Amino acid sequence: MAGTVDLAFDPWDPAFLADPYPAYAELRARGRVIRYEPTDQWLVPHHADVSALLRDRRLGRTYQHRFSHEEFGRTASPAEHEPFHILNDHGMLDLEPPDHTRIRRLVSKAFTPRTVERLKPYVRALADELVGKLVEAGGGDLLADVAEPLPVAVIAEMLGIPEADRAPLRPWSADICGMYELNPGEETARRAVRASVEFSDYLRELIAERREEPGDDLISGLIAAHDEGDRLTEQEMISTAVLLLNAGHEATVNATVNGWWALFRNPDQLAALRADHSLVPTAVEELMRYDTPLQLFERWVLDDIEIDGTTIPRGAEIALLFGSANHDPAVFTDPARLDLTRADNPHISFSAGIHYCIGAPLARIELAASMRALLERAPDLRLAAEPERKPNFVIRGLEGLRVEVG
Fold this sequence. Notes:
Elements: H1 14-18, H2 21-30, E1 34-36, E2 41-44, H3 47-54, E3 59-60, H4 82-89, H5 99-108, H6 113-136, E4 139-141, H7 142-147, H8 149-159, H9 169-177, H10 186-212, H11 218-227, H12 234-265, H13 267-275, H14 280-290, E5 296-301, E6 305-307, E7 310-312, E8 317-321, H15 322-325, H16 360-377, E9 382-383, E10 402-404
Parallel strand pairs: 2-8
Antiparallel strand pairs: 1-2, 3-5, 4-10, 5-8, 6-7, 9-10
Helix pairs in contact: 4-10, 4-12, 6-8, 6-16, 8-12, 9-10, 9-12, 10-12, 12-14, 12-16, 14-16
């Protein structure tokens, strides 16, 4: 179905950003694919279609492995944005096979089940330490005091970034991720370019140091793979490290605060969780579904496809609506209800197909560790102030979450 007349879907409207899920229900009722002129995209709101298209090789995160900009009917980005695109376009999230396959194979060695399992004690100890400080202070900002420092420290530890160098990581990441929003403005692009240059320069120096003195970390491992002829360029190393940092904490940070905000708004579910900590694993999955941290994932149409009788031509862009798919009543019983005991929960918050989140097992460990620490050490944790939502759509989160303890 084409057309955007009277759509409630408006990713720049504060009311929509506060609660996009009713608008998603309207989109699903409209059809399986809806043309959205403001972003020049085709919106796909149903779970079955989103799940299938994530695996469809007629779609791609990039088209430049097959077509020039001109052949694809697109124009190159402005030259002044080049530092961002060089950084972004060499990371595996925005590559297709064979480059994606090669890089993911190397990086996956750092995310084997055994490796991730070995990180559990470190993650749990760090979560306990951060929550302990929050409790001692009588409360604070759950985002700044627990949700952010935990995954940033974990991924920085894996990469081998010294503790003294970690302060700029989150600001760099935030500025770079601004470019993933719909129709980002020039100021957003300027900040992303500056962060891309600074982050790349820092990593280039760190790579040079690790060449001289290798450590037991992921950057040293990537250098070793490069030096053994496994065809990993320095730019790919830099882009991979940035991607792992950004993807390795953005979703976890936002899932944490979105999740606790949802729990505070559903006191019966919070009470059930406090009474039975064995609910933590299913609670993590349900909170990821209920208020999805990554609402949309884009794909380029590399070869014409047909959805429900509508032909989507090569050169078009499809917006896969994760948040809508995760609230599809065809898959989830009573999807608007938070149910921490939900056992059948095939949410797609970690994507699917070849771009399935490589760090999903680690993210689950981090989310469970912070939740358990808060349940055990701050059993009376309560909201101190109504939070403000970030004015973003694609990456959904809060500006902060003020809480009290004791």
